[in-house]
Amino acid sequence: MKTIGLIGGMSWESTVGYYQMINEGVKKSLGGLHSAKIILHSVDFDPIEKLQHKGDWDGTAKILSKAARGIQAAGADFFLICTNTMHKIAPQIEKAVQIPLLHIADATAEHLADKGIKTVGLSGTAFTMEDDFYKGILIEKYGLKVLVPGDADRKIIHDVIYQELCLGKFLESSKAEYLRIIEQLAGQGAEAVILGCTEIGMLVNQNDTDVELCDTTAVHAAKAVEYATGGLIKLSKPKESWPVETDIIR
Question: Domains, the chain, ranges and CATH?
C-alpha cells in the first residue's frame, strides 16, 4: 500500500472528511484492520486566506510548496491538496517535489466521464468558478461543458464558504440558497453539479436534491484510495494555463 500525503487545513473541517473517507475506503478495499498510510501537513489557513484575497498567489505557493517538500521527505508516495481553490498554484507546488500530485480536477472529471456526463454546473469559491485553472482542465482536457452561476449567486456561494462553512457554521438559509442555485444550474442544462469546494458537501448532499451532485471531497478521497491500494489511475501534471469557454448564467 502506498503512503498518501495530504496538504490540509484549508479548512481543517473538510480535512477531517478526507481523513475519514480515505480510511473508510482503505478498510473497505483491503478489509481486516487495514487503515490508510497517511502523512498529513495541516497548515494555518488564516494567513493563506489573507494572501488569497490580496491576490498574492506566489505567497501561498511558498507555504504549500514547503508543506509538500515536508510530506515528500516524510515518505509520501504521492500527495493531495485537500482543497479545490489551492489547485490554482498546483504547477508551482509540483515543481517543488518529485512525487506526483493527484489533481482534484482530474479526479472529478474522470468521475463524471465514468457516468457519461457532458454538461456540468460548477459551484465553489469565486477563484474556482471564475479562474481558468480548474475549469480549463474540465473543458480542454475532458471536453466537458461547464456552467457557472451569475455574478450575484457566485458572490453568495463564495461568501458562505469563507464566512460560514470554513468557520464550522451551517445555516439553513444558506443551504436553501445553495439548493436554489443548484436547481437553477440544472434548469440551464447541467446534468450534474460539482460541489467544487471541499466544504460544500458539509452543507448540502445528495439527500437534499434530485439533481446529481459531485462532491469533490468524496471523489478525490476515493481516487486516493484507488491509487494507494494498487488501482491504475493517471497522475498527470496540469498545464499552467488553460483556454476556457464557460457559460455564465445571468
Answer: 4-103+218-228 (3.40.50.1860), 105-216 (3.40.50.1860)
119 labelled catalytic: no
Q: Which of 15, 60, 83, 198 is catalytic?
A: 83
- CA R_g for the chain: 17
Question: H or E element: which one contains 46?
Answer: helix 45-54
Residue with cell 487495514: 34
| Strands of the chain, DSSP E | 4-8, 38-42, 78-81, 119-123, 145-148, 192-195, 213-215, 247-248
The 10s digit of each residue's pLDDT in 32-53 is 999 999 999 999 999 999 999 9
Nearest residue to 201 (alpha-carbon basis) of 186, 218, 184, 225: 218
Q: Place 230 in a pLDDT band, splitting at 50, 70 and 90.
A: confident
Q: Is 83 a catalytic residue?
A: yes
- How far is the C-alpha of 101 from the C-alpha of 242, rounded, in Å? 18
Pairing of strands 192-195, 38-42: unpaired
Separation between Cα atoms, residue 198 and residue 20, nearest integer Å:
14
**Catalytic pick among 60, 197, 198, 216:** 197
Helix (H, G, I), strand (E, B) or coil at 188: coil
Tally of CB atoms within 10 A around 34:
14
In 3-state terms, what secondary structure has residue 120? strand
CA distance 206 to 209: 6
Give me the DSSP letters along 51-80: HHHHT-HHHHHHHHHHHHHHHHHTT-SEEE
